[in-house]
Structures
1.
Amino acid sequence: MIKQNPYRIDTSENSIRGPLVSLNILYKEMPETQGCEKCEEINGSEKTWCCRSQNPSMWYVEFLNVWEKAQNWNKEKKINLILRAIRNYLSNKLSKGCIFFDDGCTAYESRPFSCRMYGVVPKENWDKRWDNLKERQGDKFEAKQQCSLVSAKSGTAPTAKDEDEWFKHTVKCEKRIGITPDLIKSYDLPGGTYRTFHDHLLIELYSPEFLNKLTVVRMQNPSDADIDGFISVLREQLNQSM
């Protein structure tokens, strides 16, 4: 049986292995970074603020690369991941944090392009994204600049040309798994395949009907207490069904 996903592409082993290998070859060629080891010393209780307040987006092929490993986690760890995804989806806050952060990055070896570039994105590219984000978020804008502690271990920072070429490589991997040009062009827009971790995970696991129910709850602008109660019920259901 061919394994398919919500994008109606073949995600069986034979179909995705080549693109995933190509993606990981790129990751190995990208510069290693340093500086995170100084975070607690410099930031104290605000350590790891980047992972706790930011919610990375990635192509579907990058999500599959992470999800392939996460599917082998134990039951409790997977349930906690799913519930963090649902909590993020229900929250109307802009600063939600990454669902794969749990007292440390649980997907570090397979982390997506945006995480690997964070801290070393060339200024001209970063400024464009910063301005676009400001425009989208308006009065609610609360993003932070790149962490100044992070740098390339080699001492040579990536150029804008480097980042653009690496990003094009990830797009080619996205095309190779069968994602259509229209979905790729919908970059950062509803319906496209460049999404946050929690969106990818929920779309992968749940039916449109269940996601519609979650959307109804989110539209009611639930409080943290409301979300806690909802999550508690879901945890019990997941414990019984998984």
Note: The beta strands are 33-34, 57-58, 151-152, 195-196.
2.
Amino acid sequence: MKAVILAGGEGTRLRPLTLTTPKPVVPIVDRPFLRHQLDMLDQAGVSEVVFSLAYRPERIEAVFGDGRALGKHIRYVVEETPLGTGGAVKNAEPHLDDVTIVFNGDVLTDVDLAAVVRGHRDSGASATIVLTPVPNPAAYGLVEFDGAGRVTRFLEKPDPAQITTDTINAGIYVLQTSTLELMPAGVNHSIERAFFPALLRRGDRVMSHVHRGYWIDIGTPEKYLQCHRDILGGRFRVALDGDAISGGWAHRDAVVEGAELTGPFYIGPGCRLAAGARIGPGAVLTQSVQVAAGAEVGDSVVWAGSVIGPGARIDGALLGAAVRIGRDVRVGPGAVLGEGALLPDFTRCGG
């Protein structure tokens, strides 16, 4: 059993953060995003992974390498032209064996992957789809299933009168690799809109696994910020690389003495907080962030190497790497600053 992680998207909804950093390696508190998916594969005993890439593949390979440091063997397959979700899996087929786990590369979840794999094997299914309930299923494609959990129908973007279930495709699948024979090679092909319906038409057993725990698509600034709130608040459980302090976490290599800390928060390695700086609640300083005296950071994510000047206030914002915030700047809710952005003294930005 091997895994394919679909990580070829350009992350356009997260721009400008993803103009220089591919979405698969944007930091989620203390680690690049795809580390969470690699960690989940440990549950199912999967050590061989294929990353299907297209956008800035060298940046992703530079972060994960051959995977040995994480106890994995990672292979990289790069699309020359966009192949869609199905085409990307088909492109990885030469490197797979009899069973394949597929992850969409933008989903953070605490699904019990080992239970999904067990259920797939016990049912004799050709494919198993992880489903998750959402409050407004009309914005998604619905997946209907019978009392035994067997998928019966896919319904894309239904009208309100057509809604019969609140479960949607969660972007995690277990497949018998032999079923990839239904996918054409080298062309753009959708696993959701073409491959799975083709399995049903052929009469294959397609099973569902409904996950009612944590699930979020990190692909928008709002959801990206929300998943940090959820981790700090314990709604998505992660053993953060830091020591518990004042209701939050601070890495042992961070300098925080004299700063005012209000949990929850995370302060990463190499961060330097001046005496009188105020951090939290809800602040994430990923790495080597400097915060001057009198500056405040709350409910925000600040990427590596950024500098926040004296008296500045950051609230509800996302700051990319190496951002420079001047004296008495105000950055409010909804602001997203890309790598290397500079806000001069007394600037106002965001809500």
Note: The chain has a mean pLDDT of 91.
